[in-house]
Amino acid sequence: MKVLLENARVIKSHQVQKADVLVENDRITQIQPEINVEAEQIIDVKSQLLMPGLVDIHVHFRDPGQTDKEDVVSGSAAAVKGGFTTVLTMPNVDPVPDTPEKMTAMVKHNQTAGSLHIGQYGSITKKRTSEELVDFKALKEAGAVAFSNDGNGIQTAETMYQAMLQIKEVGLPLAAHVEDESLMQHGVMNQGTVAEKLGLPGITELAETAQLARDLEIARNTGAHYHVCHVSKARSVELIRRAQRDGVHVTAEVAPHHLFLDETMISMDNPMMKMNPPLRTLEDRQALLGGLLDGTIGMIATDHAPHTVEDKAGSMKTASFGITGLETAFPLLYTKLVKPGLCTVEQLVEWMSIQPAEIFNLKAAGQLEVGDVADLTVMNVEDEYEIKEADFASKGINSPFIGQKVYGQTQLTMVAGKIVYQREG
């Protein structure tokens, strides 16, 4: 089947160019200023942005085990509505993918129920919260694309050391949720004057930075690819920057909410502002953006964490951590970074597509050249719209960004040549 996308502003080779794009079956076969060819489907893109499909290496689909919050079907619908064509799902599910049999079953379920490319993390330890390492080689052979215990940090240095040694041998990244549980003290937001004013228990920055410093030294010693999830502190950015300068194989991600929200925006006990790591300070936000701009942080990942209405009700003391993010990520980033001139749209595509695909060795993702798999996204960045609860495809509506007006609404998402989302109207 041939699909012709006409009159697009195509983002490729780090620049925007006017072009038509021809897709035949699952491949891009032409990118030219004008293409005259018969096609089964011709779509006038109307000068909107056409870019490689977005890539999110950090999502929670809750499937299996918590499908009242999200499942592969609803998570996929949210992803493609947000312009994503590839996501990697975290292993904090039940059962945990800690054996080849469980991994095989999850990979098969992702493929049959999903509407985009879904890569599956394997856990680092059995049941994800123990200190017993999994069989990394067997899990890779069963389909694992990386390893993480996300939701929990690895608490002992010896376990992390052995994990890095073994994961290095299989050639995949280790993605770390850096959190020293002994320093959490049942906190629900950043430790500081705002928490004190609200009478809420705080989380010290040391819960993140102390474990990060430990892990960076282990990564230095082992040579493993160590990836830092959802960086939230200025000190963390500096630790990562120094390690990279020293030749440590460390990469990092930042979530949109840590770029755009901070503790001063929490004026009351509001569960929608409860996430882990917590929202930090304005200075931390500025350092995170600086780390993104100078390359210390190589990608943006949503940490999409949907919850039921009940789980996010009441007080921050009892509500679940997390924010739904797949459908709001690109518009928030475009509106708050590109529109004010803090970065270019080409840089945004680097952080949201090209670099996550390269860093995690996702060979079919983040590409937009003739011969590549046709994973494409079309975005309308000219018209403003409001983020509305009723418009979410995700089961989770737990977003503090509801009501904000943004630019960058997904018009079309194509996965392997198949249109999996097209906005009506």
From TrEMBL:
Span of domain Dihydroorotase catalytic: 48-233
Listed EC numbers: 3.5.2.3
InterPro entries found in the cross-reference section: DHOase (IPR004722), DHOase/Allantoinase_Hydrolase (IPR050138), DHOase_cat (IPR024403), Dihydroorotase_CS (IPR002195), Metal-dep_hydrolase_composite (IPR011059), Metal_Hydrolase (IPR032466)
Keywords assigned by UniProt, alphabetized: Hydrolase, Metal-binding, Pyrimidine biosynthesis, Zinc
PROSITE patterns: DIHYDROOROTASE_1 (PS00482), DIHYDROOROTASE_2 (PS00483)
Superkingdom, natural source: Bacteria
Reactions the enzyme catalyzes: (S)-dihydroorotate + H2O = N-carbamoyl-L-aspartate + H(+)
Catalytic residues, chain numbering: D303
Cofactor note: Binds 2 Zn(2+) ions per subunit.
Residues binding Zn(2+) 1: H58, H60, D150, D303
Co-factor(s): Zn(2+)
Function: Catalyzes the reversible cyclization of carbamoyl aspartate to dihydroorotate.
Family assignment from sequence similarity: Belongs to the metallo-dependent hydrolases superfamily. DHOase family. Class I DHOase subfamily.
Protein name in the entry: Dihydroorotase
Organism of provenance: Pediococcus pentosaceus
Lineage: Bacteria, Bacillati, Bacillota, Bacilli, Lactobacillales
